[in-house]
Design a protein that fits this description.
Helix content: 25-40%
Structural class: alpha/beta
Order of helices and strands: EEEHEEHEHEHEEEHHHHEH
Oligomer: single chain
Number of helices: 9
Strand content: 15-25%
């Protein structure tokens, strides 16, 4: 069954990218004459596994600047969680969906198809892709990412998630809190637990399985961390150096 997709394009261009682009929305920052989100749309429409594509964006801001077959738009509400909930109002309640950020212009239809196939190799409610540092830097030597060291290696997170809609109501409050607290260590400890946090910060010997089990327990779901071989899933554009890299790669 094709997977429906929610594309998040609600972020105003008020961060570091504002220094190099006057676009009102980060999704509209141009890469070689084309809005960044258009690369994502093209990849989704090239993917054989993708069904409906719903773009969450400020009304009238993104739609006039993109092209694609049967694209659907819903108004953004500010918070990432609210934007996902808004998109789900127009999607079937019993079909799994992808959440994709609009700032991953290197993804392709083949990568999306193969990522979905990789996720489906094991049953779970929420799939979170991660990429090994050596894989990312071997293909893109100049990329700058945030990495986390675990027992199996050093990884960066992806920007595409596969979700079972049945868990949305249950996980919404904790996902909202996690996103709100991600820049506050003290509050993050309150979510993850002191023992778990100290073990990571002091010993750095957590395994992928332990991390997966902690997230699953925290959210009361079956979560799956998926090691994927495509660094494009984890390379987003949120600062001028990222944009420069994308322009060179996609030229």
């Amino acid at each position: 069954m094709p997977v429906n997709v929610i594309v998040l394009a609600g972020a105003a261009n008020g961060g570091p990218l504002r220094e190099v682009s006057s676009a009102p929305n980060e999704a509209l920052v141009e890469i070689n004459g084309k809005p960044m989100i258009q690369y994502v749309i093209d990849a989704l429409q090239d993917a054989r596994s993708v069904g409906r594509v719903v773009i969450v964006a400020p009304p009238g801001e993104v739609e006039p600047h993109v092209q694609g077959k049967d694209l659907e738009f819903v108004p953004s509400r500010g918070h990432i969680v609210d934007n996902v909930l808004e998109a789900l109002k127009v999607l079937p309640a019993d079909e799994e969906f992808l959440v994709v950020s609009s700032d991953v212009p290197l993804v392709t239809g083949r990568i999306i198809d193969e990522l979905i196939a990789l996720c489906r190799q094991r049953p779970a409610d929420l799939y979170y892709p991660i990429i090994e540092r050596q894989v990312a830097e071997a293909r893109y030597p100049n990329v700058t990412r945030t990495y986390v060291t675990l027992r199996e290696g050093t990884f960066t997170g992806g920007n595409i998630f596969l979700v079972n809609p049945a868990i949305v109501d249950r996980v919404e409050p904790k996902i909202r809190a996690f996103l709100d607290y991600r820049k506050s260590p003290a509050k993050m400890v309150s979510l993850l637990g002191l023992g778990f946090t100290l073990r990571y910060l002091l010993l750095r010997n957590l395994s992928l399985k332990e991390l997966e089990e902690k997230v699953s327990s925290l959210l009361d779901i079956k979560g799956a961390v998926v090691i994927c071989p495509w660094p494009e899933v984890g390379i987003d554009v949120d600062k001028p150096s990222d944009l420069e890299l994308m322009r060179a790669v996609l030229k």
